Amino acid sequence: MPDTETAAVEKPKWWHRWFRTPSELREMGVVGINMRNARFLLPNNPRRLYELVDNKLRTKALAEEFGMTVAETYCVVRNPHDANRIDKLLDGREAFVIKPTRGSGGKGIMVIYKREGKNFVKPSGTEVTPGDLRNHVSNILAGLFSLGGKRDYALVEYRVQPATLLTDMSFQGAPDVRVVMLHGYPVMAMLRASTKESDGRSNLHQGAVGIGIDIATGMSVRAIHHGKPITHHPDLGICLIGVQIPDWDTILHMAVTCQEMTGLGYLGVDIMIDESMGPLMIEVNARPGLAIQMANGIGLMRRLVPVVEQHAKNPTADLETKIAFSKKHFRAKLPEPRD
Description:
Layout: H1 4-9, H2 13-18, H3 22-28, H4 33-41, H5 50-54, H6 56-65, E1 73-77, H7 80-83, H8 86-89, E2 96-100, E3 110-112, E4 114-116, E5 119-121, E6 127-128, H9 130-141, E7 154-157, H10 164-167, E8 176-182, E9 185-193, E10 209-213, E11 220-225, E12 228-230, H11 248-262, E13 266-274, E14 278-285, H12 292-296, H13 301-313, H14 319-329
Antiparallel strand pairs: 1-7, 2-3, 2-7, 4-5, 5-6, 8-9, 8-13, 9-10, 10-11, 11-12, 13-14
């Protein structure tokens, strides 16, 4: 019989590399969902402001009022009649993205890469018939992918053509940059790149790659896939470390402006970089996930606490002051730039 006492103590070599005890996580400053909600989200995000970001149509309209560039809306499907003729409404469109206006976590997003005859093709190569498209839009209207399961609208918009540098880092889909902020101070950022598994979507839980970005410079410093550190894209084989993200200062300014326009204290902003239009504001999230800590290899607590202290000292700091503070205090150890 095996020695159960020994078996309970001895772990395989990989165990200590990927798994941490609660005390180790606290020492690293890792923020869990309960701590995020109790200490940072609930005290700083008034419930009345959630509607501004939970409805993508309202968020896009607000962003345009503040002078930000957003992806063009092709159409909004609001009823079963339009859902049944969605292929007609998109006649002449070769590529587009369909998403629920109140979706979360990447659920319900369908990316269409091109057309082949009467059918549509997703980044994975899977064909979508007009009937499949109608069914998907109908499911969105029924609230299948929406917060609280409430009835919803389907938003169809421009499929971002990513900047050439970023195209090499993502399998078909357009990568997006997420910036997490507290009181308007950028505290952590990552690039989310799609894989064949994620089917053109950038959600980490669906198999996308998370790439940590240095707040000060915009250079990629670390990458993960399914929570495990990697250095190269699992499908493309390209190195993901030491890449300079284009238009970094513009991205930071856009993120902080999103905080100003919503009034939320703790939030995440998703931005895509289009080859011709530059950074586009895609979405604002009042409940940003915590995987960004793994992508950067550092706990959020080590950055949130200095921001709380700084905000207490200077509650009326302007946009430039906040960005300068974050660049100075949250600079990462940079890798050598890739060739």
